[in-house]
């Protein structure tokens, strides 16, 4: 490993944390790419003049964040950097692709069903009227990242599961001439249920980010209502905050 690593022994910052921060930065900036091997703890400890427990603690902190994984017979391997999604009207597919994360989709449900009260209110349709429901599992580098459940008003868009697995929902909308204009969105967090944990490859009770979004086109028409859950270990939202004059 040809990384330029160093620790400042005069700093009050713990040595393991200094090392973990440098490794995390290397992963985030692409110096350490997904699939690359970190090297063994003994070599790294000797190179930096650190104890093996210190190096082990630094590596474990990144394993806990989901950035590294220990594979028997292989060593410590970089998984991928956490996806940081800007708060703008974009799709997860586009954001993953822009981050170089090789997005893939597994369609779980693609059906028409009666609208619940919540869905009907979001889409401005009558309760019980037909709406299109799509459930997908979004993956990056072959690992689950998010579970996406979207409801669309009837007759808005024609697509099959193969199209949904090949690209993002917003891309399909744009391809048919729908101009996305704005959205109302809320973000939260909660613990994963057993079903969600199994679906996303997390332990039961692991933290999940949640997002609900109602999206409008340039005519003011509601075009989708989404309810999504994301692995907090792999995903975060970024905000840009401005001071009011």
N-to-C SSE series? Answer: HHHEEEHEHEEHHEHEEE
- The amount of helix comes to 25-40%
> Strand count, sense and closure of the main sheet?
6 strands, antiparallel
Structure annotation, total helices: 8
Gyration radius, in Å = 22 Å
Rough outline: elongated
Structural class: alpha+beta
* Straight-line distance between termini: 49 Å
- According to DSSP, the number of beta strands is 10
What number is the mean pLDDT? 84
Strand proportion, as a percent range, falls in 25-35%
Low-confidence stretches: none
State the strand order across the main sheet.
Answer: 4-5-6-9-8-7
Features:
245 residues; alpha+beta; 6-stranded antiparallel β-sheet; elongated
Please characterize this protein's 3D structure.
This protein has helices spanning 15-28, 41-48, 52-64, 92-98, 117-123, 161-166, 169-175, 194-200; strands at residues 68-71, 75-78, 83-86, 103-114, 130-140, 143-152, 180-191, 207-217, 222-231, 235-238. With 245 residues, the protein is an alpha+beta fold. The strands form 3 sheets. A 6-stranded antiparallel sheet has the order 4-5-6-9-8-7. The protein has a two-stranded antiparallel sheet with strand order 1-2. It has a two-stranded parallel ribbon with strand order 3-10.
What's this entry about, in short?
By secondary structure, the chain is an alpha+beta fold.
Topology:
Layout: H1 15-28, H2 41-48, H3 52-64, E1 68-71, E2 75-78, E3 83-86, H4 92-98, E4 103-114, H5 117-123, E5 130-140, E6 143-152, H6 161-166, H7 169-175, E7 180-191, H8 194-200, E8 207-217, E9 222-231, E10 235-238
Helix pairs in contact: 1-3, 2-3
